[in-house]
Amino acid sequence: MICPTDHLLHRFQDDELSPLDRQTVAEHLRACDACATKLQHMSQLSDLLRSAPLPLPAMSAILKWQRNTRLLQDRSIRRLASWMTAAASILLVASLYVSTSTQAQAMPTLHDWEAAVIGIDIEPGATDQATAQWMLTDLTHAPARSQP
Amino acid sequence: MIEQPTDEQLLERLSSDAHAMSLLIDRHGRYLYGIARTLTQSQTEAEDAVQETLLALLKARFDGRSAVRTFMVGILVRQAALLRRKRRGWLRIVPHTGDRESDCDEQNASDAKADLAVLLEKLSHEHREVIVMRELQAMTYDQMASILNLPRGTIESRLHRAREQLKLLWIK
Q: Out of A11, A61, A77, whose CB is closest to B47?
């Protein structure tokens, strides 16, 4: 094998070669001192970079990060709470509406024979509410009618 | 002895537990700053990049394919690039007057001046970015490609060029 390019050696160093290519390069490195030395220098530079101390933040910066993230979290929780309140309100209104309409459907209608018995002029299928209204009207006028 | 939650568990609790974020900052804040400072070469920008990373973490979805720290560094690299672009736009309007240096940073500056940090400063941002991701964070080419949203081939050649440039600076 001819000497691998630096690009290939970098990929070898980064363990980014296919197993077959890796084996080929490894065999070459065992036989070629120049390439082995080159790889060694590459690795030295990488090791130096890894071992170099990283700059540290000021304590005030860490406290600022803590404070700002907490503020955002609190805001998110408050927003979530308001959404949940709104959702609960919608649910409540919806369930009240469903409950009322179910009750209205369940309300018994006045049968034709009942209307005939009490002798009122109510359309067939009228509700109790209509009957009650008729009774109220009739009772209001009742004393006047009873006068001779 | 109380068992400490893992980083993964802390990430899951982030949206509802302020203590989880506090613990993550304690564990990774200093490291993230170190990376940010290497990437941005400015204390203020580095602090802002870490802040933005932590805020972005609240909305980010961790897929578990890498270590939590690698995941955080990925966000940091993107946030640093975003801030850099914003800052470049801003600098066109207001001339840069330099950064304030904290006591801590001054102390570290003397250490950092030793060789490599100074060499890294001389690299372009794109080259510094790939060097930091590969050498300091040991990311794979695929991880880097995914974070920078670039083809793998571009990452390979960029990293190669960055190393060549660094080697030249090192020899000088």
A: A61
Q: Please name the member of B21, B34, B115 whose beta carbon is closest to the beta carbon of A54.
A: B34
Interchain contact, A65 vs B50, CB within 8 Å: yes
Among B32, B68, B57, which Cα is nearest to A62's? B32
Cβ within 8 Å, pair B25-A10: no
Whether B136 and A55 have beta carbons less than 8 Å apart is answered as: no
Query: Is the pTM higher than 0.80?
Result: no
Residue A32 · residue B150 · CB < 8 Å? no
* Helix, strand, coil fractions of chain A, as percent rounded to 5: 75, 0, 20
What is the per-residue pLDDT for B103?
Answer: 46
| Residue range A107-141, pLDDT digits in tens | 566 666 666 666 656 565 666 777 777 777 777 76
pLDDT tens track for A54-85: 889 999 999 999 999 888 877 777 787 888 88
A66–B167 CB contact, under 8 Å: no
* DSSP output for B137-162: T---HHHHHHHHT--HHHHHHHHHHH
Residue of B nearest to A62 (CA): B29
Cβ of B50 and A61 within 8 Å? yes
**What are residue A127's DSSP bridge partners?**
A109
For chain B, the residue count is 172
Contact A122, A115 (CB under 8 A): yes
Are the Cβ atoms of B136 and A74 closer than 8 angstroms? no
What ipTM does this complex have?
0.76
Q: What share of chain B is helix, strand, coil (3-state, %, to 5)?
A: 75, 0, 25
Put simply, whether A45 touches B (Cβ < 8 Å) is: yes
A46 touches chain B (CB under 8 A): yes
